[in-house]
């Protein structure tokens, strides 16, 4: 079964597969976040893949089993929401969620055989260009990946070349529309991109620009999985001290986005991972992540969402409300994706 949900002001997504097993997750003691970069209030940025909330000490974590079993996805849930914010007239964010799932029941547990595609874009460009670019990117990516991945019978994540090809197809479509309309310089429309692929307990993340993906789990804590494609981060990667890099007047200028330039200037960041514990992912536009908002609010939002003490839809709404309360200067979009995994002990027929 394939289900698809695209941008609405309040998207109603199935929070999870039916009748998932309840996770056994003890409470986590809050730990003060560590923020590696002190950025201006209007555009906060962190070091890439920084451990923001440390994992629990060993005596608070279950002993590791003597035999390591492969992990199996037993539940996949998601919720998404976008909001225009407090100061913008138009919402230039756009998202899309596609889920292909087949849940099978066994005597001892449920097995969720699922592919998930989660896409979030933050558009830019005058005269509604950002709205056009972000929607065009999401819809092009969905169509490209339907043909090459989730619409096929092939099991597993798409490889890196398949992901890059889909992103380049989206970039090329927006870029050619800019050329056809004779848009020049800053007048060209464009968009950021964060995209998440799920297949079983395997995950891939791809991004272009400064929209972000975070994950939160009991043992690993809170991590930022993407590195902002902006001048400040580029200078840090060259060896410049963070304070010096973000003292530049152009520190928050994007170094790449979809649409303004051709494919030779689009080099997406792509990461593959395999999950060994229940994990919550959050894809977010910068209207939510500015001012270290997720780093500050994880104890009241992300942790309860992971532990099922807070429903995904309710949690995403809470994130949007916090974004409007503490930021509000930009459009705000969040997609929360929760994966529950268990050791694979099923005796297959």
From TrEMBL:
Residues 1-13 have a biased composition (Polar residues). Residues 1-57 are annotated as: Disordered. Residues 75-339 form the PPM-type phosphatase domain. SMART domains: PP2C_SIG (SM00331), PP2Cc (SM00332). Residues 17-30 have a biased composition (Pro residues). It holds the Pfam family PP2C_2. GO terms for molecular function: protein serine/threonine phosphatase activity. PANTHER family: PROTEIN PHOSPHATASE. NCBIfam families: PRK14559.1. This is Serine/threonine phosphatase.
């Amino acid at each position: 079964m394939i289900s698809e949900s695209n941008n609405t002001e309040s998207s109603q997504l199935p929070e999870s597969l039916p009748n998932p097993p309840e996770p056994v997750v003890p409470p986590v003691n809050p730990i003060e976040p560590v923020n590696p970069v002190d950025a201006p209030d209007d555009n906060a940025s962190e070091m890439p893949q920084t451990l923001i909330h440390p994992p629990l000490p060993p005596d608070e974590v279950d002993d590791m089993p003597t035999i390591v079993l492969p992990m199996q996805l037993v539940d996949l849930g998601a919720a998404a929401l976008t909001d225009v914010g407090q100061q913008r007239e138009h919402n230039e964010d756009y998202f899309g969620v596609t889920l292909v799932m087949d849940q099978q029941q066994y005597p001892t547990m449920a097995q969720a055989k699922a592919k998930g595609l989660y896409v979030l874009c933050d558009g830019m460009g005058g005269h509604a260009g950002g709205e056009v670019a972000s929607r065009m990117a999401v819809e092009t990516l969905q169509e490209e990946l339907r043909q090459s991945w989730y619409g096929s019978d092939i099991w597993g994540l798409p490889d890196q070349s398949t992901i890059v090809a889909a992103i380049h197809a989206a970039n090329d479509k927006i870029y050619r529309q800019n050329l056809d309309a004779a848009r020049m310089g800053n007048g060209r429309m464009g968009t950021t991109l964060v995209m998440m692929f799920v297949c079983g307990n395997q995950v891939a993340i791809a991004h272009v620009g400064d929209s972000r993906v975070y994950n939160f789990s009991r043992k690993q804590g809170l991590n930022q999985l993407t590195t902002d494609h902006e001048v400040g981060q580029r200078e840090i990667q060259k060896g410049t001290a963070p304070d010096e890099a973000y003292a530049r007047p152009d520190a928050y200028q994007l170094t790449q986005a979809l649409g303004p330039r051709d494919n030779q200037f689009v080099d997406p960041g792509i990461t593959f991972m395999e999950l060994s514990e229940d994990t919550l992912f959050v894809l977010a536009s910068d209207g939510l992540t500015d001012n270290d908002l997720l780093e500050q609010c994880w104890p009241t939002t992300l942790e309860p969402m992971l532990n099922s003490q807070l429903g995904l839809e309710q949690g995403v709404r809470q994130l949007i409300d916090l974004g409007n309360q503490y930021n509000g200067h930009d459009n705000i979009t969040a997609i929360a994706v929760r994966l529950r995994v268990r050791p694979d002990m099923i005796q297959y027929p």
